[in-house]
Amino acid sequence: MKIGFLDIEWFDVLDVLLLAFLLYQIYFLVKGTIASRIFLGYLLVYLLYLVAKAIGLELLTTLLGYFISVGALALIIIFQQEIRRFLLIIGKSTNIANSRFVMRWFRQPSATEPTTPLKPIIDACKSMSSEFTGGLIVIAKNDDLEKFIQSGDRLDALISKRLLLSIAGQYSPLRDGAVIISEDRIRAARCILPISENDEILTSTGFRHRAAIGISEVTDAASIAISEETGRISLAIDGELYPNISSGELEEKLQQYLMELNKVRKREGGKDTPVE
């Protein structure tokens, strides 16, 4: 089939449709972030390049070609968080990543498989909420949070309500930043987390809650934010914030969150400790 100066085959139509679908998925992924504007700008430049190439404007085609070749590398740097999130979504949508073979070869070996006890965490959040004490607690799942742990002060202590309340105390030198919990231990406090750049977040949302959303966007960790002004408890998972939830709802959502990890361990034949 020939339209004007274009010779179009059915495979070309399929190619365009698949490309349009891929571009839509990419736009949906970056929608609401600053990166979406950069993506649209780059897309318009690329469309201009295709038009100039089809018409035969050699000088403009050459200049835009140089820009696009350099811009491709720049886009990888700019969209590194979105690319990571995209690959994480793909990994979560398949059971391959949770298969026994993959987990056997790529998961770090450990002598025991402890689970994170929820009771001291929930009790601490309840006390902090009633006393209007701000706090930010990150609970790791599968992703390695080592680089965020290194940004704070290492503790490597057993989880307890009194320790969490001491860290969040008004005169505690460790109260600023986040507490990171992995399995059954508090790994570090005063950790620095990435701030979410999602434009759809309400402007009234504070930096503590934006940090809670940010860490859940770039990793599969769950994060709990307690407001110092209102005492409300919020939970962030997979880039989504559940604001103003009760301690019961918090425990229920965290149990569901950890249950997926426990199922993987059971498929491996390991022994599990019941979640408190």
From TrEMBL:
Catalyzes the condensation of 2 ATP molecules into cyclic di-AMP (c-di-AMP), a second messenger used to regulate differing processes in different bacteria. It catalyses: 2 ATP = 3',3'-c-di-AMP + 2 diphosphate. Belongs to the adenylate cyclase family. DacA/CdaA subfamily. PANTHER family: DIADENYLATE CYCLASE. Signal peptide: none annotated. Residues 80-247 form the DAC domain. Keywords: ATP-binding, Cell membrane, Membrane, Nucleotide-binding, Nucleotidyltransferase, Transferase, Transmembrane, Transmembrane helix. This is Diadenylate cyclase. The gene is dacA. One of its GO terms (molecular function) is diadenylate cyclase activity. It is an enzyme of class 2 (transferase). It comes from the Bacteria. One of its GO terms (biological process) is cAMP biosynthetic process. Its EC number is 2.7.7.85. The chain crosses the membrane at residues 12-28, 34-52, 59-79. Probably a homodimer.
